[in-house]
Design a protein that fits this description.
A hairpin with a 5-residue loop joins β1 and β2. With 384 residues, this protein is an alpha/beta fold. The protein starts with 12 loop residues before the first strand and ends with a helix. α7 packs across α10 and α7 packs antiparallel against α12. The chain has two domains: 110 residues, STAS domain (Transcription Regulator spoIIAA); 222 residues, no CATH class. The radius of gyration is 36 Å and the shape is elongated. The longest helix has 40 residues.
Length: 384
């Protein structure tokens, strides 16, 4: 399409200045099909010398949002050159043009605010998140106190009705059902740890100490930590999803209406069940991890099983195993506490269930790693 100076040629879309350079006449079909060819000539448009200009669009036959945007951009370009510009449109196209102009006026201050106050907005987000984390920690601490008191009452008060069927069910779901995945990952981690350790110790001719690395690393740290992380992703998320779904379906409201204590019914079986299951899973994980390391030592280093067991007996003591097991009930309590707490925070929509389940896993894994680091520092200070 060629931009014609003479409207009588009847092109698809056209524009021209009058002889005095005061009025820009436009006409034809200002649509998206013609916008690509109108764009460059309009950008190169030179305004006249007059201070007051007019855009006469009364001869426009068809106009869509692309054409209206080109007209608005031309008006703004002329205004930025210091001109006062008025636009005349057919009545049927005036609402479209005015709505685009209103939208442009609303967005311009927002863009300027974003460019000019990015640092302030960034600091505001940090402050907001800091306050949120503090409030979340405070509420969770209060929930920890409540659950701790009711857990102690469950074992000391004869009036408390601990639901053993639910407790056994939770031990099965969090413990027995997790055996395949925990065992497989522990076995593979034992293989990886033995392979990497042997590869480095070969340089010093100390391949036999790969067994020491395996024993201390798996029994003291890696076995319990990996098991807790798997359980946090598997069981902690399940706690949040189950309780959250009950909240969406208003089952928790119904339980409270008939006088049931939701902590006794929903939280205690999960907390106590996981506290029982996780230490047992940790022992199972330790055994499978050592078996994976023993298999790698046999095939890569030629260390037989009797030699492996003898060296392992010299490398580790009962305290090495106990250090890893002491952490397991604490990890289990934290994972179940976070999972149940986030489940009760679910709002009455399905999207909230997914959001809080994700948050539950992230918080559980974070707290498990922090607690593991704290235990390591404490044991180091105590010389254990």
């Amino acid at each position: 399409m060629t931009v014609f100076a003479d409207a009588s040629a009847a092109p698809n879309a056209w524009f021209r200045w009058d002889r005095e350079g005061r009025t820009l006449s436009v006409g034809g079909a200002w649509t998206v099909a013609e916008s690509a060819q109108l764009d460059a000539p309009l950008r190169d448009l030179e305004p006249g010398q007059a201070a007051d200009l007019a855009i006469d669009a009364s001869k426009i036959e068809r106009l869509d949002s692309a054409g209206a945007w080109l007209l608005l951009r031309t008006q703004r370009a002329l205004e930025s050159a210091g001109k006062k510009v008025g636009v005349t449109l057919p009545p049927r196209y005036t609402p479209l043009f005015e709505s685009l102009a209103r939208l442009e006026r609303k967005e311009a201050p927002t863009r300027r605010a974003r460019r000019g106050d990015r640092t302030g907005a960034w600091l505001a987000r940090i402050g907001k998140q800091t306050i949120h984390i503090g409030q979340q920690g405070w509420r969770m601490l209060g929930y920890l106190g409540r659950v701790t008191v009711e857990t102690l009452e469950a074992f000391t008060s004869p009036k408390t009705n601990l639901r053993f069927a639910a407790l056994v069910h939770q031990v099965e779901q969090t413990g027995i059902s997790a055996l395949p995945i925990v065992g497989l990952l522990a076995f593979l981690i034992g293989i990886v740890l033995a392979y990497q350790g042997a590869d480095q110790l070969k340089r010093f001719g100390a391949e036999i100490f790969t067994i020491n690395l395996l024993g201390v690393g798996i029994l003291r740290e890696i076995g319990g930590l990996i098991t807790a992380i798997i359980v946090a992703g598997r069981s902690g998320s399940a706690f949040t999803a189950q309780i959250g779904t009950m909240r969406v379906n208003e089952e928790i409201d119904a339980m409270q209406t008939i006088g049931l204590n939701t902590v006794d019914v929903l939280v205690l079986p999960r907390v106590i069940g996981l506290v029982i299951a996780l230490p047992l899973l940790t022992i199972y994980s330790d055994l499978l991890g050592l078996m994976g390391g023993a298999a790698m030592c046999y095939f890569q280093l030629g260390i037989t099983i009797p030699v492996f067991l003898r060296q392992l007996n010299e490398a580790v003591t009962v305290n090495t195993l106990l250090v890893g097991l002491i952490k397991a009930p604490v990890f289990a309590f934290v994972i179940s506490l976070v999972g149940c707490y986030e489940g009760f925070q679910v709002e009455r929509n399905a999207a909230s269930v997914g959001l809080l389940t994700t948050r539950s896993v992230v918080e559980s894994v974070f707290l498990v790693i922090v607690l593991d680091a704290a235990f390591s520092v404490m044991f180091s200070v105590l010389g254990i």
